């Protein structure tokens, strides 16, 4: 069994949870032990996030993970204004910053400040390796994490709805862009603070969330039927 498989990741699951779950199903179909089955992904989603996770099944596909991970991605996000989070999402310690409600015009100006190529400092709570260790592990231990700015591209950032303290946006970005950091930077520009309260990935390259399978409805039959073969 080999190919690309699209999963709609639920909130509360890690990307590794999904990979392990699918690996066990593939193993049962092939009559193998899970440790002998190759399943990978093309880019993680935070545990609180939902949406499209592109899985690669089989050795011929997992070896192409780096290539496929470079695809642009689209997200729908909810930004909570007036507060910050130590992790940039609902799982961190929340601190109130300001009770001032920015106007929609002010929010629009801030959003327009993040367009095209920008430099972005990845969050401390990320999977980036620092001296051989994951940054989030160091951050959880209370150690200082220093990450260098890196170039990313915001292809499109649009406000869908705004009712203080929440704003719903859609963003189309290059690979490597951290949405939590983007939201925090918008909050800094507004002077109110902000963190990501909701996040859903709807596109990875040419793959769409509308074509994905819910994890809880997954079984050996529809897994095999929904595999996509690429050249």
Chart the SSEs and their pairings.
Blueprint (H helix, E strand, L loop, with lengths): L2 E7 L5 H16 L8 E3 L8 E8 L1 H4 L2 H4 L4 E9 L1 E3 L8 E3 L7 H9 L3 E5 L8 E2 L2 E2 H6 L9 E14 L2 E8 L5 H12 L3 E11 L2 E2 L4 E2 L5 H6 L6
Parallel strand pairs: 1-14, 3-12
Antiparallel strand pairs: 1-3, 2-3, 4-11, 4-12, 5-6, 7-10, 8-9, 10-11, 12-13
Q: How does this structure look, described?
A:
The relative contact order is 0.24. The protein has 231 residues and is α+β, with helices and mostly antiparallel strands. 25% of the residues lie in helices and 34% in strands. It has helices at 15-30, 59-62, 65-68, 104-112, 135-140, 179-190, 220-225; strands at 3-9, 39-41, 50-57, 73-81, 83-85, 94-96, 116-120, 129-130, 133-134, 150-163, 166-173, 194-204, 207-208, 213-214. Strands 1, 2, 3, 4, 7, 10, 11, 12, 13 and 14 form a ten-stranded mixed β-sheet that branches. It has a two-stranded antiparallel ribbon with strand order 5-6. It has two domains: 3-70 and 207-225, Pseudouridine synthase (2-Layer Sandwich), CATH 3.30.2350.10; 73-204, Pseudouridine synthase, CATH 3.30.2350.10. It has seven helices and 14 strands.
Overall radius of gyration: 19 Å
CATH classification class of the largest domain = Alpha Beta
Task: Work out the helicity level.
Answer: 10-25%
**What is the mean predicted local confidence, pLDDT?**
91
The CATH topology name of the largest domain reads Pseudouridine synthase
Task: Give the second-level CATH assignment, the architecture of the largest domain.
Answer: 2-Layer Sandwich
Shape: globular
Number of spatially distinct domains? 2
Q: What's the total number of strands? A: 14
């Amino acid at each position: 069994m080999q190919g690309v498989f699209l999963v709609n990741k639920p909130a509360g699951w890690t990307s590794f949870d999904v990979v392990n779950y699918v690996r066990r199903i593939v193993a049962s179909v092939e009559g193998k032990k899970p440790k002998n089955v190759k399943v990978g992904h093309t880019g993680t989603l935070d545990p609180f996030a939902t949406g499209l996770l592109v899985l690669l099944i089989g050795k011929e596909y997992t070896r192409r993970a780096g290539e496929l991970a470079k695809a642009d991605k689209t997200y729908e996000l909810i930004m909570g204004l007036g507060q910050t989070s130590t992790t940039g999402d609902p799982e961190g310690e929340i601190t109130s910053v300001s009770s001032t409600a920015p106007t929609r015009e002010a929010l629009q100006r801030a959003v327009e400040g993040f367009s095209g190529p920008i430099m972005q400092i990845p969050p401390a709570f990320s999977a980036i390796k620092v001296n051989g260790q994951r940054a989030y592990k160091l951050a959880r231990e209370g150690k200082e994490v220093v990450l260098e700015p890196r170039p990313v591209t915001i292809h499109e950032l649009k406000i869908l709805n705004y009712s203080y303290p929440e704003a719903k946006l859609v963003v189309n970005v290059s690979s490597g862009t951290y949405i939590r950091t983007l939201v925090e930077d918008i909050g800094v520009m507004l002077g109110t603070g902000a963190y990501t309260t909701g996040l859903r990935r709807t596109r990875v390259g040419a793959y769409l969330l509308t074509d994905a399978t819910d994890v809880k409805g997954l079984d050996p039959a529809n897994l095999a039927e929904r595999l996509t073969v690429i050249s």
